[in-house]
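Internal QA ticket QA-208
Title: Verify multi-chain structure generation after dependency bump
Assignee: T.L.

Test input:
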Amino acid sequence: MQKKWEQEAKALKILILGGFLGSGKTSVLLQLAQYLVQQSSGNQNSRVAIIENEIGQIGIDDKLLRGNGYTVRDIFSGCVCCSLNSDLLSGVQEIKREVDPEWLIIEATGVAFPDKIAESLFTNLGIAAQIVTLVDASRWQRIRLPLANLIEGQLNDAHLILINKTDLVEETVLREVEADLWELNSDASIYLINGIKPIDERLLKVIQNG
Amino acid sequence: MADNKIKIRNSGQLSKRKKYQIVTTLHEGAVAMAGETVFQEKSFNALKTIIQEEFAAINQWIAARGGIVGHLKSFLATTGQTAMISTTGDQVSCRLQPAAADGSNGVLVSIALIVFSIPPNDLEVRLIDLFEQLECAQKKGESHDR
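Actual output:
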């Protein structure tokens, strides 16, 4: 039974969007989902499904995403990287069964460790997910040391790191953030984005192609 | 949509307050606290303004205590429009979006606060205070209509 599921699930591409609170995950998710829908052959929102994990019992971001017409499944009141891991696995299986999307985007909570989510998906469902972690350049120096365990953990195993809100910091600060990130995860590709301009289509393609 | 009445659950202030549902979750040093209720539709703009002002005040209050704002977010939805109010400790932003008219009669107000290094009970008092301000504004609006 598990083998059959694993074979079927191989066609499902999973992308985990991680990063600290307020780093811009939901904004990036909306742009990425729109791009993926445009690229899909059916050109329907059902080609992209979203799992929205919010730490508090009451979701805010899921309301925004639903307003944009996507299939959204919520997992509230905890974090899918630890206490709600079984909810995540059943959620992925349910989405595959009922919606069968080409892409599943998991927006992690701002206090989640994306590598733990990826590890669980691989161990339990045989799916290798891609991790994209967002970093808020404007708050990096404020939170880097007080929340070091969390901030560093969120960068583990990230394939891509998007430094967001680059328009809000000086060039020298930006270089320091980049140097820090390079030290923490030298395997990841690092890109700069900001809230003023939409994400460049070339970068969206990079995310799409993994 | 949520019930019109706000109830307490899992609350440190349970014995003192009887009307609000505020749920707290702790994770990786973060205190996540959220509440939700429905107010009269005509109060949409007044509620939005109160939340924006109070988020700015909470930002200052947290900074003065050496805490860190993860985020403060609120989503207001009424028939025909929504507002997303958010801050990560500096400016408070508000994004308005048109929404489908769903025929519901009220404004759904959801508020979620995630902060670090602030005692949960202290934060809960602030959130209760915010809900009370919203309720007060609604009552004033109702009395003007009579």
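Spot checks passed. Chain B has a mean pLDDT of 81.
Status: verified.
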